[in-house]
């Protein structure tokens, strides 16, 4: 079919008033549904996080039940007392072995020869602190305080 054109009459616009109203309605629907959709997605992720947390809590409860069952066994309690508290049964001689770093010749090191072992301070820490404050107060400007230890 051939299109008839009337000279001097403008062509029809591409968007009619119906199309414009339809576009506005669709945009309004999208704007109206955007917030509830975002809330729905956020709630779904929160539900998934809560389910994971609940599963982790269930696993922890199960582990604690197993631990409680172990502590009901008298042999386990004895073993833990021996290991953690260094208890011994009557007739046994308990001991704790301290292994210093062995020297190269195989002999035990002398009392003062251990590297990194400092003798205990003659005064308590707060007395040392107060002495250092007094020393800093009495120091002359331009002189350095004597080195300690």
N-C termini distance: 111 Å
How many E strands?
0
Instruction: Estimate the helix proportion, in percent.
Output: 40-55%
SSE run: HHH
Radius of gyration: 43 Å
The unreliable regions are none
Q: Residue-averaged pLDDT, rounded?
A: 82
Q: Please state roughly what percent of the residues sit in beta strands, choosing from under 5%, 5-15%, 15-25%, 25-35%, 35-45% or over 45%.
A: under 5%
Structural class: mainly alpha
Instruction: Specify the biggest β-sheet.
Output: none
Count of alpha/pi helices: 3
The backbone outline, from C-alpha atoms, is elongated
Walk me through what this model shows.
With 149 residues, the protein is mostly helical. Helix content is 54%, strand content 0%. It has three helices and no strands. The protein is elongated and about 120 Å long. It starts with 16 loop residues before the first helix and ends in an 11-residue tail after the last helix. The mean pLDDT is 82.
Question: What's the quick description here?
Answer:
The chain has helices spanning 17-72, 74-84, 125-138. With 149 residues, it is an all-alpha fold. The termini are far apart.
Write the topology of this structure.
Elements: H1 17-72, H2 74-84, H3 125-138
